Amino acid sequence: MQQKLIYILFIFASVISYGQVNLFMESDKADYNGKDIVNLTIILELNGVDLEPQTRFQLPDLSKFTIIGSGSVTNTVIDPATNTLITQKVTRIALEPKKKGKVKIGSVLVTVNNKIYKTEPFDVNIKDIIEKRSLATNIASEMYLNMEIEDREVYQDQPTIAVLRVYSKSMDNFRKVKDVHLPHQDNINVHAISMSKSEIDPSGAGNMASQTLAVFMVFPNEAGYVEVPSVSASVSSYANKNKIVSNKVKLNVKKLPEGSPECFKNAVGNFSVNVYNASKDKIEVEKPINVIVKVSGEGNLPDMYLPKILASPDYEVFTPKITSKVAPGTTGMKGEMFANYVVIPKKAGPISIQTEQFAFFDPASREYVDLGQETLALSAFSHDQILESRTTVEKVNEYTNTLLETVNTPVLKTTTFKVKEKSKFHWNILLTNIAILVGLFLIYLLFKTWQKKRALVRETASPKPLGSVAETEKEIRETLKTDINDYFSYLENLKDNGDYPKFFDTLEEMDLEVRNQYFKSSSEEFRTFLESHKGSSVAEEYRNLLQRIQMEKYSPLKSAEGMDELLKAVVNLYSRISK
């Protein structure tokens, strides 16, 4: 009888455990500071195969918190003691408190097999709320822009060099800076010298590293104290995009000396003026010609007033088209400015085309230089004079062309017999000759390939004696050796085409090939090998180059100058390593 009672109790115990549902919620602690994150853990445990949640977790009112993250995981195990399936669902919620004091967290509800289960509510104590600073404020404390101008005393329209640097405590912040906006103001003219990022200098101000973002020229166009406005840049993160600004710099702009020529306008630097006729044909009355006024030199070239062509009853002149070919120099913008005028002669005979007087101020000598006027002497001809100056053959050709273009006979269309001034180029003959040369070149390549195969068969037929382990390793290394110059040419083409992702993939492939020559699988092993066999300086240069490649690869701004410098460094180092 006692055994039957024990058996009955075991049956009831298994039935109770078979359909058990446990739901509870807890926090990681009861008291929180304002900067702490409240972590809630919700656990639903189902003991039995017939239990299935019909709803998701119904969360309580969490309006006094900011939900900053959540995640769930489900685990299923079988209890070996009772042979019962146990399903456990765990959900974690990270909350940021908005108010201080005692905050009540309500119940979580879930429906299982048409029955509603809920957790017990509880309180958490929030001591103090620390106002969260915006990302821009955080970034302002971690990084800042600084505009540096060494020469702050210049003449009006004389350039001074400005350098923009970013300073940061974290190296990761440098890749987030982009979209640099140079200052714009009516009393200054700004021209960029370089907008490419430099290498990161770890020895910056204090304990902050620095990086040069831009170098530009500032041309103040008025005297007195001129303030260069701040330079701005954007800092991008996963959440949002913010802007940081640099400091302002005040310049002491000296007024130009007294005694300037009357023709002086605003040219500061060192210049020369040249006027020439771009048309090669004979000048005919009432027919337009191109006259170029070219100003060459170094200074405020893009912003100064160019000397104009003076009006005259002998010709008609139209508004010019201004083009430039300038680049940054040592004392200003250096190059050439072109004013392309269309001039129509009004009379036959000699014509003198004159420009305005031109003068400039030379800051090196602190003197004004008056270049005076430039004169272009031309000879214009009337239409009859142009016809008379033609040779007999040219007259016959023109007469024949005019006749055949305007008169058609009833038998055939005679315009097809028009006499052409230039003989026709026979493209068919050229293409045939090219095809013959290409065919001969292919035959030569096939012959060389056949010779190499024969030599390889001979070497295979006569086995070489086995050498030592060192000789075998040297032979394998020579076999695996890569023609590094092929990679250099390919990288040059990728850089010129702007295919930067393929450029960096090819760099990694080349690095792997070079490491395989020395049987090194990782960069650390290869650096240790270089330190032992090539010296510590080469090993350190290899480490710095790999770091520079990674930084340039993930840099949001890639300039042609920076990529050129990187490729030069790669060619220099790998040429020495692969020898």
State the secondary-structure class: alpha+beta
* Total E-strand runs: 28
Uncertain segments? 9-18, 132-137, 411-415, 462-467
Q: Percent of residues in beta strands?
A: 25-35%
> Whole-number average pLDDT?
80
The biggest beta sheet reads: 5 strands, antiparallel
Radius of gyration: 42 Å
Structural description of this entry:
It is a single chain. The chain is of the alpha+beta class and 579 residues long. It has eleven helices and 28 strands. The protein has helices at 2-18, 135-142, 383-388, 392-406, 427-461, 469-480, 484-497, 500-517, 523-533, 536-553, 560-577, and strands spanning 20-27, 31-32, 38-47, 65-79, 84-97, 101-105, 109-112, 115-118, 122-126, 143-149, 153-155, 160-168, 177-181, 188-194, 209-220, 224-228, 232-236, 241-245, 249-254, 269-277, 289-299, 315-317, 321-328, 333-345, 349-354, 358-362, 367-372, 375-380. Mean pLDDT is 80; it is low at 9-18, 132-137, 411-415 and 462-467.
